[in-house]
Amino acid sequence: MNGFRLRALGFGPVTAITVTSLIFSTSCGGPAPQQQAAQPPGEVAKPAPPPPAPYYVYVTNETGDNLTVINGGTDQVEVTIPLGKRPRGVKVSPDGKQLFVALSGSPIGGPGVDESKLPPADKKADGVAVVDIGSRQIVKMLHGGSDPEQISLSKDGTKLFVSNEDKGALSIVDVASDKLLASIPVGDEPEGVTTSPDGSLIYATSEGDGQVTAVDAATNKGIKTFKTDARPRACAFLPDGSRAYCTAENSGTLSVIDAKTHTVMKKLKVPGEGVKPMGIVVAPDGKRVYLTTGRGGLLVEFDPAKNEFGNSVKVGARPWGVGISPDGKKLYTANGPSGDVTVVDADSLKVLGTVKVGKGAWGIAIR
Fold it and tell me: Is the dihedral of CA 311, 317, 323, 324 positive or negative?
């Protein structure tokens, strides 16, 4: 084989060493020359993609105007997605393919703030962003009424329920057509919106009037309004739908609700110094309820079988949103002023770590 023929086969300049090496390789049973070039010269083999996470944690950052995605297997941030103004309430669609996020152009106020001195609201920024979980891109914007704060979905994912904080109403929106199906008065400053496990009910809290309105998810009509303690923030149902639990920030209490009759069974004082009960989540097996305490800085455990509080743990600054992993083993709290998420072992209630997210960490959804 001469040098010309080797060049024609794509081996470049040929030396005696090249020819000797080829002869030695072939005579010793080595691979044929055409089998040696596994990849083009100068290219580095790409590493294998990491295994998919067992679940993802989605965190809205109210003053950062974005959403942070945390890998539930590593508890590391994977990506931050720009959204729009004041993202707060966040929910995953029942099929796990989309994420719904409430956006608001209203300025941040708070209890006791003179709203006449706040800058004007940017109503064009109001809406509900629909994020495709696969591509992690906004694919649609829905009209969720004025100043959307919290949201929930029907069991089949066809209807969206939105609390309109500045209008005292609950908007019901058809997801496919973006049509407003109903607007139900639910009291001053509505916030928490929760769908019952069987999808038949929606509970909407009213901070200003200290009440909760039960809405029939099929007829889009209010069924009953009942009083809780001062400034109810959020409610959560047991898996069997028999009970609901609603936090009351200003009273520092947890209300136990008969979800069949929509009546308050008990009001329990949440333990801890300076606690302001806010976010709430129920374990997948229904054996524990967990609530954040805002300026109290605690995550508190509650036993629904005994109607007793259990352990508590110090998490980040002013924890609000809270979520639990699908297997019930880990809890995540969104800590606004510190802009991070605390990861807690659900069994021992010990802090496992802290994940830095964005400014004003607010809501959490997990899937």
Answer: negative
* Spatial separation of the C-alpha atoms in residues 207 and 288, rounded to whole Å: 25
- Residues 11, 111, single domain; the answer is no
> What is the Cβ-side half-sphere exposure of residue 267, based on CA atoms within 13 angstroms?
14
Share the mean pLDDT of the chain: 90
Q: Please check the confidence at residue 231 and state whether its pLDDT lies above 90.
A: yes
Question: Which of 248, 200, 198 has the alpha carbon at shortest distance from 226?
Answer: 248
Residues 31 and 92 both lie in one domain: no
What CA–CA distance (Å, rounded) separates 58 from 367?
A: 8
Would you tell me how many other CB atoms lie within 10 Å of the CB of residue 159?
22
108 DSSP 8-state letter: P
Full residue range of the structural domain in which residue 182 is found: 56-366
Residue range 158-199, pLDDT digits in tens: 999 999 999 999 999 999 999 999 999 999 999 999 999 999
- Indicate if the pLDDT at residue 42 is higher than 70: no
0.90 surpassed by pTM: no
Residues 338 and 247 in one domain: yes
The answer on 300 and 172 residing in a single domain is yes
Q: What is the rounded distance in angstroms from the CA atom of residue 295 to the CA atom of residue 273? A: 9
Residues 61 and 22 grouped into a single domain: no
In a domain, 270, yes or no: yes
pLDDT tens sequence across 326-364: 999 999 999 999 999 999 999 999 999 999 999 999 999
Neighbours of 266 (CB within 10 A): 10
Q: Give the number of domains in the chain.
A: 2
One domain for residues 60 and 30:
no
Residues 97 and 183 in one domain: yes
Distance of alpha carbon 364 from alpha carbon 53, whole angstroms: 17
> Does residue 257 have a pLDDT over 80?
yes
Based on the domain organization, do 120 and 181 belong to the same domain? yes
pLDDT of residue 283: 98
SS3 23: helix
